Amino acid sequence: MWQIFKRYPRAYLWSVLLHLALLVLMLTGVDWLVRNQNVGGFENMIQAQMNASPEIERRVEALRAAAALRPEPEPELRPVPVPEPRSEPESEQADAEAAAALITEQQMAEHARLHAIRQAELEAQRQAELDAQRQAELEAQRQAELEAQRQAELEAQRQAELEAQRQAEQEARYQAEQARREAEDKIRRDIAELAERRAAEEARRRKDREERRRQAAEAQRQEREEQDRLEAEAIARRAAQEAERRAAEEQARRDAQLARRRQAEQQRRMAEERRQAEARERALDAALQAELEAQRHAAETIPGQQTAAARAQIASKWVPAITSRVKQFWVRPSVSRADLQTTVNLRLQPGGAVVQGSVRIIESSGNAAFDQSVVVAVNQASPLPVPDGREFELFRDFNFKFRP
User: Fold this and answer.
1) Distance of alpha carbon 129 from alpha carbon 19, whole angstroms
2) How confident is the model at residue 18 (pLDDT cuts 50, 70, 90)?
3) Rounded to an integer, what distance in angstroms lies between the CA atom of residue 102 and that of residue 104?
4) Nearest 5 degrees, angle CA 28-CA 29-CA 31?
5) 55: Cβ contacts below 8 Å, ≥ 6 apart
6) How far apart are alpha carbons 253 and 265 in whole angstroms?
7) CA-to-CA distance for 365 and 140, rounded, in angstroms?
8) Domains in the chain, start-ordered, CATH in brackets?
């Protein structure tokens, strides 16, 4: 019933209202003798309750028409007793009673007719309720069928969606299978290509190894030939070197002899040059002495040591310049000490040029390498800075002391 109310609320409501109206009529006790008021009011109430149901209204109208066409029941004919002759008052009373009885009988007939109409209306109402209930049931059935159809459509749609999903999944599986097969085919092709490349690479490597072995064998052969050639050349070179060594030794022996002769000659020449230098120095001293003597005679107030002082002054001016010049060309030997000192004698030409071969050691430092480095530096420093004129005579042949 609750399902019927949920699906057909209006029909159910009208049915309940109709039952309530009938219950009110039964409880209030309708006066069936007043036709126009009671029947009309009941009809109006039925009409008000049936306005929303055309089928019930149609049935009520049909029942009304049938009741109107139905012949009224004829009053029951009863034998009328022949009244006894009465007196006039009794006769009037009898007429009044007969009239009252007739009225009562008519009222009873009217009541019976109204009761029949009411029963017909109740039957119509019951039929209308049954029709409404049947209509509600039909509507409920129709709604149920519609709901079932909707559910069937939804189920069909769901099945269609499931089928579409199944087909999509099947298509996806097919595509995945195709992709897997294509991937496997590609992998197989790649493996085959890789195998081919590896085979080709291995063949190339094998060929390279064979070529390298051939080249190595050829290189070994050439190396052996080269070694043989080098050994032969080495033997020839050693023989030549031996011959050169012997020749060099012979040349060295001859050079040594020549060097000894040259050294003896140089020593002799240096001794001669020293002797000549000493003679020139003595002559210079004599000349200077004579000049000084002349100057002394010219000016007796000048001290006798003026000549020596003048020579010392000239030396102090030019010897540092000569030392600086020689230091520019001097190279310190690796085995020499810092406190070494060497004195050499040398002869100069005007302008400061060193006379070739004139440099000789007269006071050695004790280190032959150091002494020789000083001799080389003096020769390379030529020309040395010296004065001009008469002052140059002091440096024509002089002793030079070198200390780094």
Assistant:
1) 9
2) confident
3) 5
4) 125
5) 128, 131, 132, 135
6) 18
7) 147
8) 2-72+98-162 (no CATH), 303-402 (3.30.1150.10)
Q: Encode pLDDT of 373-391 as tens digits.
A: 999 999 999 899 999 888 8
Higher pLDDT, 206 or 262: 206
Sign of the C-alpha dihedral, residues 98, 102, 108, 112?
positive
Question: How crowded is residue 371: how many other Cβ atoms within 10 Å of its Cβ?
Answer: 21
In angstroms, rounded to a whole number, what is the distance separating the alpha carbons of residues 182 and 208? 37
Helix axis angle, 88-298 to 40-50, nearest 10°: 20
| Cα gap 40→373, rounded to integer Å | 169
pLDDT, tens digit, 9 for 90 and up, residues 248-292? 788 878 877 877 887 777 778 777 777 776 776 666 656 555 655
How many other C-beta atoms are found inside a 10 Å radius of the C-beta of residue 360?
17
- 189 membership: H or E segment, kind and range: helix 88-298
For the record, the structure tokens of 298 come out as 């010219």
Tokens of 203: 């063949």
Q: What are phi and psi of 332, to 5 degrees?
A: -70, 130
The H or E element containing residue 396 is none
Q: Look at residue 84 in the predicted model and tell me its pLDDT.
A: 53
**Letter for the amino acid at 287?**
A
Q: Edge to edge, what strands does the sheet with 397-402 contain?
A: 360-363, 342-347, 397-402
- Cβ proximity of 365 and 331 under 8 Å: no
| Helix, coil or strand: residue 399 | strand
Distance in angstroms (rounded) separating the CA atoms of residues 293 and 277: 23
The structure tokens 């020769």 sit at 379
E strand or H helix at 132, and its extent? helix 88-298
Q: Give Cα 297 distance to the centre of its chain.
A: 112
Quick check: 346 and 398 in contact, CB under 8 A?
A: yes
Average pLDDT taken over every residue of the chain: 78
Residue identified by tokens 């390298």 is: 212
What is the C-alpha to C-alpha distance for residues 253 and 255, in angstroms, rounded to an integer?
Answer: 5
Residues 328 and 381 sit within 8 Å (Cβ to Cβ): yes
Residue in the block written with tokens 């069936």: 32
C-alpha span between 334 and 370 (Å, rounded): 9
